[in-house]
């Protein structure tokens, strides 16, 4: 059971082997996902939405990310574990960024961090990398900037934003990032970035011409049925499974059927 490393992701790209990535935020889920052979587990700040019930990812704190990261790390034996740096913990201040990064690494034992943005956060990226901490970049639709974008629609459809994204991707590779997540951009643009860069490009809503895919686990398990972007494929309908199990349990308790003779002491 060889632990996945950032170097291994690089080798997978060279071998044309697709990289699989899913989010997890807790011990039980991380254990299942790791045992299923998923290459990378992302402790995403999407925990803000699917765990904490916030509308955006912005409220997530460093302490909350560390709590989730530590829970996931206790379960994982094989996958590379990546923790998202939360909004406010790295932007515009590379000293703060390094301190935040070191806290996550020390207190969770995670393998790698993910930061949203390109040129505008390059000082923070370089400073964290200089401490020997691997980084995965994140470009395109970066949810921590939702208040700037004003919409969760596809990014970089226009030439100016596409050019900026390509140049940001090159910058992140040049300073030493291990991989880049591209979220919700045209497939052709994502494919171009993947072919120009040596580091792996992992897409979400970025088409098939990239080196790997990532989805939020609650979405792909069909627990979040109100959220249906085009890029989402549902691999289960856990919403209905859980709903029906809860109703069935309720019926059994109310009728006196549960617990029965064999289910008591
Ligand atoms: O927080 C998250 O789940 C993410 C993925 C969507 C890439 O950043
Ligand atoms: Na995220």
Automatic annotation (TrEMBL):
Keyword Transferase set for record: yes
Biological process terms in GO annotation: methylation; pantothenate biosynthetic process
SUPFAM superfamilies given in the database record: Phosphoenolpyruvate/pyruvate domain
Gene transcribed to yield this protein: panB
Keywords linked to the UniProt accession: Cytoplasm, Magnesium, Metal-binding, Methyltransferase, Pantothenate biosynthesis, Transferase
Pfam families: Pantoate_transf
Enzyme Commission number(s) of this protein: 2.1.2.11
PANTHER family: 3-METHYL-2-OXOBUTANOATE HYDROXYMETHYLTRANSFERASE
Active site: 183 (proton acceptor)
GO CC annotations, alphabetized: cytoplasm
Name listed for the protein in its UniProt record: 3-methyl-2-oxobutanoate hydroxymethyltransferase
């Amino acid at each position: 059971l060889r632990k996945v490393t950032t170097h291994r992701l690089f080798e997978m790209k060279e071998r044309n082997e697709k990289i699989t990535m899913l989010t997890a935020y807790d011990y039980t889920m991380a254990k299942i996902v790791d045992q299923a052979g998923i290459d990378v587990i992302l402790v995403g700040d999407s925990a803000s939405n699917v765990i904490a019930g916030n509308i955006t990812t912005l409220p997530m704190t460093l302490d909350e990310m560390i709590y989730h990261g530590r829970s996931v790390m206790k379960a994982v034996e094989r996958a590379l574990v990546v923790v998202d740096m939360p909004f406010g913990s790295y932007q515009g201040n590379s000293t703060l960024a390094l301190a935040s990064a070191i806290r996550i690494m020390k207190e969770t034992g995670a393998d790698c961090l993910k930061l949203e943005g390109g040129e505008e956060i390059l000082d923070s990226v370089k400073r964290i990398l200089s401490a020997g901490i691997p980084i995965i970049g994140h470009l395109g639709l970066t949810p921590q900037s939702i208040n700037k974008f004003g919409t969760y629609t596809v990014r970089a459809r226009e030439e100016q934003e596409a050019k900026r994204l390509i140049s940001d991707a090159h910058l992140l590779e040049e300073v030493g990032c291990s991989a880049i997540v591209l979220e919700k951009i045209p497939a052709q643009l994502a494919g171009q970035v993947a072919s120009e860069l040596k580091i792996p490009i992992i897409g979400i809503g970025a088409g098939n011409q990239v080196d790997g895919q990532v989805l939020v686990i609650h979405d792909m398990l069909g627990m979040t049925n109100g959220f249906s972007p085009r890029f989402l494929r549902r691999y289960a309908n856990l919403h209905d499974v859980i709903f029906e199990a809860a109703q069935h349990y309720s019926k059994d308790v109310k009728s006196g059927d549960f617990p029965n003779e064999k289910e008591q002491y």
